[in-house]
Amino acid sequence: MKVKTFESNKKLFLLPTISLLASTGTLFCCALPALFVALGAGAALAGLVSTAPWLIALSKYKVTLFTLSAISIAIAGIMQWRARNAPCPADPQKAKACARARYFSAWIFGLSIITWSVGFFFAFLAVHVFY
Questions:
Q1: Cα–Cα distance between 121 and 110 in angstroms, integer?
Q2: pLDDT (tens digit, 9 = 90+) per residue, 77-125?
Q3: According to DSSP H, which parts of the chain are helical?
Q4: Which of 39, 86, 103, 112 could tie 4 with a disulfide, CB 3.0–4.6 Å?
Q5: Alpha-carbon distance 78 to 87, whole Å?
Q6: Of the candidates 123, 126, 127, 130, which has an alpha carbon nearest to the alpha carbon of residue 61?
Q7: Is 92 exposed, middle or buried (0-12, 13-18, 19+ CB in 10 A)?
Q8: What is the tens place of the pLDDT at every residue in 40-73?
């Protein structure tokens, strides 16, 4: 039986970070433009789209973007769950770093879930709620 150590916690930190980046893409795709329009900043949105035309491509493939980011978040969640009881090193300094890494990893994972949920709301549900 393989025992997870501090070194395997690096993967535990990497996956939530990737899921946070993926879920941030959902905000750029859908929540940011909806926020600009809701605030009456349509001209700012037009300027943003002309400066960053890749936003249109993100919006065009929003179903794929949300699916891939949800898969990324699910994988990160599974890794978080599997490593929840993994032992930290006996060295007090390394144990403290291990505990801090776990806390930060869980925080990033929670932030990615919130970010994805906000993007999902604006991409798929806000139209039905507000109109």
A1: 17
A2: 888 888 888 888 888 898 888 888 888 888 888 888 988 898 888 888 8
A3: 9-26, 32-38, 42-51, 54-60, 62-82, 92-120, 126-130
A4: 86
A5: 17
A6: 123
A7: exposed
A8: 887 888 888 888 888 777 778 889 988 988 998 8
CA 45 to CA 19: how far, in whole Å? 26
Reference 113, options 20, 32, 34; nearest CA is 20
Report the residue count for the chain: 131
**pLDDT at residue 16 greater than cutoff 80:** no
Tokens of 31: 């929540």
Cβ count near 69 (within 10 Å): 25
The two tokens of residue 32 are 């940011």
**For tokens 């395997």, what's the residue?**
8
Q: Kindly state the DSSP code that residue 90 receives in the 8-state scheme.
A: S
